[in-house]
User: Fold these one by one.
Assistant:
Number 1:
Amino acid sequence: MEQQGPVSNRTDPVLPCPGCGGLVPDVPGPVHPYMRASPGCWQVYGDVVARWYAEPLAGPARWHHVDAYAVQHAGGAEHDRRQRRSVAVHLITLCSLLELRQRPEVAAARRGRTSDVVLPRVGLSDWPYLEPPSRQGPVTVADLDGVRTTAEEDTVAAAWLESAWTAWAEHHAVVRTWATILQEVRS
């Protein structure tokens, strides 16, 4: 029998998140310090991740939810060095997973070394600004709020990773180059 996941009991009005566009609760609260997300989206993400830590997913989203969330909330990167780094590192990690077919745990483990490995090899002192896509993809963290079964959750989570990566297609060539450089350096 399929295990039942928590079903969203949210009754708050919803609005589109200014980062990912997902319909999330219209609630007050904290937001990430440099990602462009509404309080409701940040809350949904926290709830989803807490649920996954209680009963981890078996698939790649277990390791890569942070990558999908970060690239779907990239507003302000033209003015914020932390955000430019975040976008580049998380796109490289998604590329490593989805295109270069690295094992999820390997791609995630390399995330912390990405800047130190890639930037010197491409002759940069900092990550360049990558213009975010006008649409962040059809699947967002909001789609994981209230899924009913673990199988559905695995399916939606995998689609979320693909959606987040695909939305950045305009930058795939440069990100692929960076990810290949990272992959060539053995951990």
Note: The beta strands are 14-16, 23-25.
Number 2:
Amino acid sequence: MIARTEVLPRQVGRYQVERVLGRGAMSTVYLATDPHIQRQVALKTIRAELLNDAHGTAADAELPARFINEARAAGRLVHPHIVSVFDYGEADGVAFIALEYVRGETLAARLAQHAASGTAMPLIRVLVWFAQLLDALAYAHDVGVIHRDIKPANLLIAPRGECKITDFGIAQLDTGRLTQVGMMIGTPSYMSPEQYAGAQIDARSDLFSAGVVLYEMLTGMCPFSGASAVVMQQVMNEMPPAPSSRAAALPPEVDAMVLKALAKQPAQRYESAQGWRVELLALLDTLTARIDPDQTVVVTPLVREGLAPPANATAAHAAPLAWPPELLAQLERRLASHVGPVASRLVRRAAAQAADSHTLAAQLARHLPDDAARQEFTTLLARHATSSGIVTPHAARLESGARQTGAAIDPARVELAARRLATHIGPIARIVAQRAALGADIAAFHARLADALPASVDKRAFLDTLDTPNAPDN
């Protein structure tokens, strides 16, 4: 049989189509632009033949209803962790939903990356994303929407670290039901026991599915797997092993939380997403308090740039600075965009313990999802230190070390390197260059500078500019 080639439409309704983002059995999703307000959208279109095919299966006949259901369910939800619906309509026989376009990837893709590399997701990052998911579910449940298909493929991770729920195609609304009691609908490995039983469901069904997702994020393994009949037997009758049996570093509080969410009887689970979220934030607060900053800053850019304080330079060895309230407020706002309301507590705790801007940046950076966000914090605090004229204990040690050691690198070369580096990492470049020069020959100096560069920068080209003093700094 010859495969049919789908022609990319130039326009659907008023939306100008740019390219295909994805295809499924039911729909195609395009990247498109709304010319009225110059906004990019993810334009989800149902296959035209499904709208009018009277000879398909019962499941096929339900697809258009699911499409409309998605528009109605997500359309009533306005929340930072739920993909927004902007528009619904039909044009030239094509039904479409205009959705918020979220750059990034699905949680399923992120899990696959970690599985391929044999690495685990950082616990704090997992709990921050999950707190965002619970916040979104609490909001949806409060306005009468039960998602019914919470799974990694329906969770998007945006570049700045936000977790967003998408695909409300089989959501249950308080104004009616897409399926009747006795019908089974969902994704097998993430369905609740009551979904398998075809029983009446409520918000606690979503919490069971969320528990499955959390288990997978923590361990890299779905707790229920195998053939459909095997998965159904597991979900209905078997409790999975505790997450810590598959990821030994997990604390017992996490085990208890996950296993409670996976209880077979809804009455034994959390009563609400909001109640679970409150408990999760308390656990997150406790876990961050347990973490020794000297053990965690190794994942931040500060260490890669040679700027982390030595092991004996903790808050216990130096009095915390009196941080300007406006700086702390700015840090809190930026952190809140990644971790939500817990940002206020995290900033207050870090500020109370940090004796210099480097330590403060390190303590906050571990809660951020990527290098770009961590670099933003580092740069912000470096600017604060420069503008306020504060010489932190760590900076004083660097200066003292430079005087005592006697850098083998010509000061003019260090200054040139600082100027060149500043175009890529900001004001902190001068300290990076000075640190790189300590006790180094030219080869070691260049290697340290190259390690401080963002991954997107051509390191060889950068190093070449250090041998051409008259080249422009930018």
Note: The chain has four domains: 11-100, 105-288, 291-393, 406-465.
Number 3:
Amino acid sequence: MAFEEYFKEELIFFLDTQSKKEAFEQMTSALYEHGFVKETYLQAVSEREELYPTGLSAAEWGLAIPHTDHIHVNKPVIALGILKEPITFFQMGTDDMEVDVNIIFMLAIKNPESQLWVLQMVTEIIQDSETLEKLKKSSSKQQVISIIEQFCNKVTS
């Protein structure tokens, strides 16, 4: 599966929420509705985020990569949330350093062996400030998909 195939228009969100809880509920509701995750996914991803925060700082961007065990996933996909206003997450590897997150990459990985590769690809996006800038300024789901495809073409060429 090529990396850009993990992204679906119906799972691109322009979120105007005030909390992680609201963002997680909106994103996982669509993941569940479209059959990508099981009913247990929301609780599992929320609990995992409390124990193992996924916030990251990259240049001027705050990002989060919430995910959980493959047993809560039906089909692999990445939901992408672009936040109107930042939401506070804890920095990965800490329980007290805060990060104002602008973009959420919510992973639903079915095959545990592919998780490392998917995380590496997401990390490459995070390290590409030009791509992050384009994502943050995007105004349509189609535009987001196009940006991801352009990034993938650049990385694989």
Note: The chain has one domain: 3-156.
Number 4:
Amino acid sequence: MLIDNYLKLPSCFITATDTDAGKTHVSCEILQAWQQQGWSVAAYKPIASGAIWRDDKLVSEDALALAQVTGQSLSEINPYTFEAPASPHIADKQQTFDLAACIQHFRHLLQKYDRVLVEGVGGWCVPLSDDLMLKDLVKALNLPIVMVARIGLGCINHSLLTMEQIKRDTDLYHGWIANVIDKGFEDADANIQAILDRS
């Protein structure tokens, strides 16, 4: 994982090849690298599903991890939190997601902090509601997109397909970060090189 290439980004949007690719881990690394440059930083995860109950409150474990780095409140990081570990358009049974409110919250963060990192939910082709896709949110935020590739069996296909779809959907694609989830995966380097050679 090479974070140095992303230090100069003014802010960014983190997406991934799929669920559990390590978006939050990478997001925390970038936020910490920004902090080391002396910038004030914020994390923003507009939607989180698969949340847990803690002290009679539904919380996102991803938001908790992000808050440990930035010191923000969970409500500032993650306004839409759903218990069901499902796509947002399924988890949000009442269809409460408000794109305009999401954008307004992001602009408020930009005024308050030097850098804002926005973390998506699931992979790239995720519906946020019956009418909205993740790409609609990213286009509205107009941020450089960094894709996290879960390095393991099947990652070449997943990575190349995701990159291609991002480029079809927007002109905001910036780059990708390899995240080796399975430390015992012997072909990690060869898979990363295969993605590099074809991307």
Note: The chain has a mean pLDDT of 93.
